[in-house]
Amino acid sequence: MINADPGFDHDFAVTAWRVNTPVLHGEGRASLVIQAPDEPGRATYVCSMHESMMKGTIEVIASRPADPAR
C-alpha cells in the first residue's frame, strides 16, 4: 500500500480475514501478505479511517480442476 496523501492517515484492512497494515501517517508505504481462504466468497477491504468512501471487494473463486488433456 502506498499513502501518497501528505497530512492524511490511511491503512488497508480486511476485517473478515483479521489482516491490516499499520496506519500510515502521511506519505509512506506498507506491505502485507494475505493467505486467501480456501472456500470461495467475498470480503470487503477498507481504509479504516475512511470506510464510507475507501472500500472495495476481494472475491475468492474456486480453482478449476487440472485439464487431463494438457
Explained architecture:
This protein has 70 residues and is an all-beta fold. 0% of the residues lie in helices and 34% in strands. The protein contains no helices and eight strands. Strands 1-6 form a two-stranded antiparallel sheet. The protein has a two-stranded antiparallel ribbon with strand order 2-5. The mean pLDDT is 91.
Summarize the model shown:
This protein has 70 residues and is mainly β. The protein contains no helices and 8 strands. The strands form 4 sheets. Strands 1-6 form a two-stranded antiparallel sheet.
Q: Largest sheet, described in full? A: 2 strands, antiparallel
* Main sheet: strand order: 1-6
- Topology as a string of helices (H) and strands (E): EEEEEEEE
| Beta content | 25-35%
Broad shape: elongated
Oligomer: single chain
Q: From the helix content, strand content and strand pairing, which structural class follows?
A: mainly beta
Q: Over the alpha carbons, how many angstroms does the gyration radius reach?
A: 16 Å
Task: Figure out the total of helices.
Answer: 0
